Amino acid sequence: MHLLAIDWAVFTEKLVLIIVVVSASLVIAMYSTYAERKIAAIIQDRRGPNRAGPFGILQPLADGLKLFFKEEIIPKFSSKFLFILGPSIAMLTAIMIGAVIPWGNKIHLFNRDISLQIADVNIGILYVFGIVSLGVYGIMIGGWASNNKFSLLGAMRAASQIISYELAMGISLIALLMLSGTLSLKTMVDQQMDHWWYIFKQPLGFLIFLVCAFAETNRTPFDLSEAENELIGGYHSEYSSMKLGFYLFAEYVNMFLSSAVMVTLFFGGYDIPFVNDHTLINTIGTNWMAVLQGGAFFIKIVCFLFLFMWVRWTIPRFRYDQLMNLGWKILLPLALFNMLVTGAIILLHQNNWHF
Questions:
Q1: Measuring CA to CA, which residue among 72, 255, 238, 228 is closest to residue 141?
Q2: Residue 237's closest CA among 323, 135, 155, 136?
Q3: What count of other Cβ atoms lies within 10 Å of the Cβ of residue 161?
Q4: Residue-averaged pLDDT of the chain
Q5: In which band, very low, low, confident or very high, does the pLDDT at 6 lie, cut at 50, 70 and 90?
Q6: Per UniProt, what is the membrane topology (predicted)?
Q7: Which of 114, 175, 176, 212 has a CB 3.0–4.6 Å from the CB of 342, allowing a cystine?
Q8: Shortest CA distance to 202 belongs to which of 340, 342, 78, 94?
Q9: SS (H, E, C) 219-275
């Protein structure tokens, strides 16, 4: 009975953590739309949303209600089941990435140490790549099921783009895995807390990963799958109401969780810079330390979200041939070069060779 009680306690902890992570991801995605419109307004020297609530702070709620109450339209000659399944897959896969991200170290409640990570699997990086690869099916299914040539063209563009940039992204991470010797995100964060952040050891790998992250999330200048001037909106041209909302929110959830992954891999995750975390825990306690670490993690994520938005309103969209040239002729060779150089340096270091 005692073992059964412990299992139920763990189940309750994980369920609460899942609810918190999913809710936070959706709320942050919702208010990222507000932040993006405000940042765009500042860059373009205008005000942005300022009617719904003070400073327009309720604008995301108004937009969400508008999507909920808009008419549901399903094209007559579409594949109805797949037409509904597409945005559902897009949103589900976007949210699932948060399951392996360590949002903090641990908290102590009810005489128990509770981990702030839903699942500490020892193949965390492979899990992230697997889920990211599944995300393209939401776009492909939605574009094909619409029975619209522009939607299908946008879906084909998205599939080609994601497959192309996943190669460079994966190879850029192999160099990081050589240094860390693990696939666990939690272990990588622990290593960075005790030593240098991996951004200082893998600057080229981070740059490649960052560019590929823009492509994987379909953000400008890589938003060729929904280029309005060519494809009338691309793969979601035929969508309305909350099915369209799922596609739009999935993009912002992907932005948020991609930023969290980059912070975890290259910027120490929840590590507080210039602070000895172990000493601070002894001073203020585990729970307050978890609050500070969560705050540091969130600040780093916000910096990346700002970068995503800043780039969107600064850099024009690529042509499709430029998109493919960048992925295959520049990023892929650079990722291979970075992997080989990293392997050579590790080999020299292990054999105590010096130049």
A1: 238
A2: 155
A3: 23
A4: 86
A5: low
A6: Multi-pass membrane protein
A7: 175
A8: 342
A9: CCCCCHHHCHHHHCCHHHCCCCHHHHHHHHHHHHHHHHHHHHHHHHHHCCCCCCCCC
**Separation of alpha carbons 213 and 225, rounded Å:** 15
Query: What does the pLDDT read at residue 231?
Result: 63
Amino acid letter at 301? I
For the segment 43-61, what is each residue's pLDDT rounded down to a tens digit?
Answer: 988 888 888 888 888 988 8
> Which amino acid is residue 63, in one-letter code?
D
Tokens 């500070």 label which residue? 292
Number of domains composing the chain = 1
Residue 25 lies in a domain: no
Give phi and psi for 113, each to the nearest 5.
-90, 120
| 296 close to 277: Cβ distance less than 8 angstroms | no
Instruction: Identify the sign of the CA torsion 20, 22, 27, 32.
Output: positive
Please give, one letter per residue, the 3-state secondary structure of 181-197. Answer: CCCCHHHHHHHHHHCCC
Domain residues for 130? 76-350
Q: 239 in a domain, yes or no? A: yes
Residue 31 lies in a domain: no
Rounded to the nearest 10 degrees, the angle between the axes of helix 241-266 and helix 286-312 is: 120
Report how far Cα 82 is from the mean position of its chain's Cα atoms. 25
Q: Which two tokens stand for residue 163?
A: 């497959």
